[in-house]
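Regression check, pyridoxine-5'-phosphate case 241:
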Amino acid sequence: MTRQRLYINIDHVATVRQARRAAYPDPVRAARLCEDAGADGITAHLREDRRHIQDADIEGLVAQARTPFNLELAATDAMIALATRLRPHQVTLVPEKREEVTTEGGLDLFHDPARLEAAILALRAANIRTSLFIDPDARQVERAAALRVEAIELHTGRYCEAPSHTPHLTALRAAAAHAASLGLAVHAGHGLTLTNVGPVAAIPECEELNIGHAIVADAIFVGLPEAVRRMRAAMDAARRG
Ligand code: PXP
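Current build output:
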């Protein structure tokens, strides 16, 4: 099986900083440590309410990350303008509700099609690889292919809430195979931990995982480089079978 990329979401380094409105810890420094420990890319979500990552963090990551930078954002005019100005390697479009604690579900690609299509066109014109964060659902996968984006990211949240409930895993496997057959690159993420990552890492079509909260949480106990290495090892072990 091909090597799977590990993109690390460093949002929650900024969460710790924003809890005190302090200048530290610095997410860019965390990104560099992750890269040194084997991350293939860095992910950050610039939320409209700026609850963790700030605009200056995005500028720092675009300028200083040595690996590809994946910027998650909602498809609003302001966010798309920011992305096309800063030109990260990749944008993942996500749904966003102000009151949610975290991204609760995937994008509905049938909702507000004019806005979504305009966002995708603007990103394509800026040469930014575009991924859509969706639930593992055949209709959404087919709509993503019709929108001619490069990739989808499958929302693994439902699976992570009940990893022993096989229908969730079956849905992820089916959506991954379907997407790959339509020419889409397949990413996955949300809620993945050392304990539940194996079955998702083992999905052959899944070429990239985006993992944040669990790695930053483990870093409190074992340090960030070791937390990254442990996740990398768990993914590699799952892919070896
Ligand atoms: N992928 C997407 C699109 C997300 O929105 C998030 C959370 O910001 C993640 C992956 C990472 O999820 P977690 O922090 O639970 O690993």
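Comparison notes: Residues 9, 11, 45, 72, 92, 94, 102-103, 133, 153, 189-192, 210-214 surround pyridoxine-5'-phosphate (CB under 6 Å). The CA atoms of residues 45 and 72 lie 4 Å apart. No diff flagged against the previous build.
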